[in-house]
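Blinded run. Sample ID left blank on purpose so nobody reads anything into the name before looking at the predicted structure. Input follows.
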Amino acid sequence: MERQIKARTDYTAGIMKSGSDPDFPARLQDAQRGTPVFEGTGVPVQTLLNYLEAGDSIDDFLEGFPSVKRQQVIAFLEEAKLRLTDDIVRDTIEKTRR
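Blinded prediction complete.
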């Protein structure tokens, strides 16, 4: 079963994710058994992270996976950055309250 969750910004268009977090702009898709993939491609976002971790560029990744659009990669990275920043701030605030 697939359902649409409303996107927050243009940056987040084209990302898919498992789970039911209504704040994460995404579509749920069972095809990858819960693995987050780029919308319409079946390419796991973990593959992008593996490329970047290995020192490859976004262009290298896009060359290897032409079904993924640059906008989707940027959207994923922007959302990841926002979520990481939010988590760091939240953790810092919680530690100061203890």
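Unblinding after everyone has recorded impressions. The radius of gyration is 15 Å.
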